[in-house]
Design brief:
The chain is an alpha/beta fold. It folds into 2 domains: 3-49 and 145-318, Rossmann fold (3-Layer(aba) Sandwich), CATH 3.40.50; 51-140, Rossmann fold (3-Layer(aba) Sandwich). It has helices at residues 3-13, 26-32, 50-59, 63-68, 77-89, 103-111, 122-134, 146-162, 177-189, 205-212, 235-244, 253-266, 273-285, 306-318; strands at 22-24, 35-39, 70-73, 93-98, 115-119, 138-140, 168-172, 194-200, 245-251, 294-298. It starts with a helix and ends with a helix.
Length: 322
């Protein structure tokens, strides 16, 4: 995947996804004593960046591949994106999901017309998807795919187009598809711009892979940021992280949730912990920014339910976090 792949993806998906806004936040700029901009990717259709990659992948499929249908594994945003893109493009979709997937994700995915199969574990979900793939369906991996990552990379193109003087971008990492695509776009066009990754404790597969020098399998996902919960990154996404990222900051759930509430109260948008963790990372990285820096936080998703909010509040209270 290179910059040409990403610019081609931007042209391909333009009629199907939203160009999300990039706005300077006076509140965050004053707090961090620099110029902070927010990329509101949570306003994307389906509530996250994932629609970009799903459309780029499926638009590029042959007629025979579309006729065969697609299968995907996801406990969240990838499921909704594949389901939505499939409904728009007339492709039959089966989404295999863990049986502990929150009801709001299940309802949204069904609402876009996909068939859902529930499995007791993520390993079982991938095994069922492999069986369906062997029957002829096209498997849409949640992150380890160049066309998918090129679609996600269009977020980075939009940032550079809207803020040519961007100095820093902070992006969340699950499996590394968004970080890989965004960093490749930004570093190709603005080599001196720094791209920082962020994970949460208990969903830190990329951080551990960077330390080990190769992908590792997490024994369990313990973070509440479920949409960051890839059990491992891939060789492909690890290589892009090694090439393009300054550092991967790992923050605890409590900081991600505390910033989720701050963003809701001050920016008036409801994010996921997988997105609000970028503000927690920015707070930890603030010594790297000057008064003249132009820092972009990518709020990559906003699929948080009201019941989630209540659970998060209880977690903060139990940890005496204010």
């Amino acid at each position: 995947m290179d910059i040409q792949d990403i610019t081609s993806a931007q042209e391909r998906i333009a009629g199907h996804v939203r160009r999300t806004p990039l706005h300077r936040s006076d509140t965050l700029s004053a707090r961090l004593k620099t110029n902070v901009y927010v990329k509101y990717e949570l306003f994307q259709k389906t509530g996250s960046f994932k629609a970009r990659g799903a459309f780029n992948k499926m638009i590029g499929m042959t007629e025979a591949e579309r006729a065969a249908g697609v299968v995907a594994v996801s406990g969240g945003n990838h499921a909704q994106a594949v389901a939505y893109a499939s409904s728009v493009l007339g492709v039959e979709a089966i989404i295999v999901m863990p049986d502990n997937t929150p009801e709001n994700y299940l309802a949204a995915t069904r609402g876009y017309g996909a068939e859902i199969i529930l499995e007791s574990s993520i390993a079982g979900a991938f095994a069922r998807a492999a069986a369906l793939q062997s029957e002829g369906r096209i498997f849409l991996h949640p992150f380890d795919d160049d066309e998918l990552m090129a679609g996600q990379g269009t977020v980075g193109l939009e940032i550079v187009e809207d803020l040519p003087d961007v100095t820093d971008v902070i992006v969340s990492i699950g499996g590394g598809g968004l970080a890989g695509g965004v960093s490749q776009a930004v570093k190709s066009l603005r080599p001196h711009t720094r791209v920082w990754g962020v994970e949460t404790v208990g969903a830190d597969a990329m951080s551990q892979a960077l330390t080990a020098g190769h992908p590792i399998e997490l024994a369990a996902i313990t973070s509440i940021a479920k949409t960051l919960g890839a059990p491992s990154v891939s060789v492909r996404t690890l290589r892009l992280a090694q090439q393009n990222l300054e550092e991967v900051v790992v923050v605890p759930d409590s900081e991600a949730v505390k910033e989720l509430y701050f963003i809701a109260e001050r920016l008036k948008v409801l994010t996921e912990p997988a997105a609000s963790c970028t503000l927690a990372a920015a707070e930890r990285l603030r010594a790297n920014f000057s008064a003249d820096s132009n820092v972009v936080l990518i709020l990559c998703g906003g699929n948080t339910s009201i019941s989630n909010i209540c659970d998060y509040r209880q977690m903060l209270d139990s940890n005496n976090v204010r």
